[in-house]
Amino acid sequence: MNARIDEPAARRAYYDRIAGHSLKPLWEVLAALVPAQPATDAVPALWRWADVHPFITESGSLITAREAERRVLILENPGLPGQSTTTSTMYAGLQLILPGEVAPAHRHTQSALRFVVDGEGAYTAVDGERVTMAPGDFIITPMWTWHDHGNPGDEPVTWLDGLDIAVVRMLGAQFRENHGHEAQPVSRPEGDAAARYGSGMLPVDYAPRNGVTPVFSYPYRRSRAALARMADGPRHRCHGIKMRYVNPATGGAPIATIGAFLQWLPAGFAGAPYRSTDGTVFTVVEGSARVELDDRSFDVGPKDTFVIPSWHRHRLHAREDTVLFSFSDRPIQQALHLWREHEEA
Ligand code: GTQ
Description:
With about 350 residues, the protein is α+β, with helices and mostly antiparallel strands. The protein has one domain: Jelly Rolls. It has eight helices and 22 strands. The protein has helices at about 10-20, 30-35, 50-60, 65-70, 165-170, 190-195, 220-230, 330-335; strands at about 45, 70-75, 90-95, 100-110, 110-120, 125, 130, 140, 145-150, 155-165, 175-180, 215-220, 240-245, 260-265, 275, 280-285, 290-295, 295-300, 305-310, 315-320, 320-330, 340-345. The strands form five sheets. A six-stranded antiparallel β-sheet has the order 1-19-16-21-14-13. It has a six-stranded antiparallel β-sheet with strand order 2-3-10-5-8-12. A five-stranded antiparallel β-sheet has the order 7-6-9-4-11. A hairpin with a 2-residue loop joins strand 6 and strand 7. The model has no long low-confidence stretch (mean pLDDT about 95). 2,5-dihydroxybenzoic acid binds near residues 147 and 161. 2,5-dihydroxybenzoic acid (GTQ) binds near residues 70, 93, 108 and 163.
């Protein structure tokens, strides 16, 4: 005898019985699984440097870089508790290295970017070449390259880490290895990759590999000077002057999974409302701005980090000349033909 099909109790009893067989009714979740527009549990969030910096400093007295392996405070999205991620796909963290320390060499299938926030004189070594860090420098660690970080200087250095951790986790493709030596041997002089691949020329027999850029450091000195030259030129009505970092050998993203951007907002700039499907992590390099979302707004200044999740409408108002760094999963979405954006009039 069938239960009446419109009887809620009968349905619940049925759900309970099938649950024991690892079966679930799609019709109870279909609208959430296939929504009319992007829906993410990630929420907009702001980490002010003034709030976070004391905790970063304190971490330096609690654990060494050697013991921690990487001494990082994860900027965990409050809407995704326990997931160690900042957007649904991208991880951001603030890493501290003190004078004299080395964060030991390892490699992993996750790709990483570094954006230097505070202090200078530390280095990151990538596949045998060291690059010295200064504020605003954008440095990448392609997947499966050996990397260690060290600080031969005399001040603490903090940078923003961006990794595709949630993507690689979702794909079940996480691998790592320890190098065995604390600092990997140096096999090329500093500046070798920049000269070889980042001077508007390429070695005549160069063949691109893995969609990964052969240049791994993009010094702020250069990118900032470029923005300054463009400052009086045409502007995008949402983004001001916004540039994307590229692999100079292909014109594509510097990392297959992560897009990174640097933008200039002139003082008084009031951007038109904008949204895109790539949830984005921003760090303020210079200046101050107001970020207006539908239900809240953030006033941000130098070294503050904030996140705008997928499809959250926002507009940027610059109080002074402002420079923003940002990164997202845009190259993944574009490769899969999923990426969308919307500009309002
Ligand atoms: O510097 O290798 O923030 O492996 C997280 C995992 C940094 C790193 C992070 C890592 C690293």
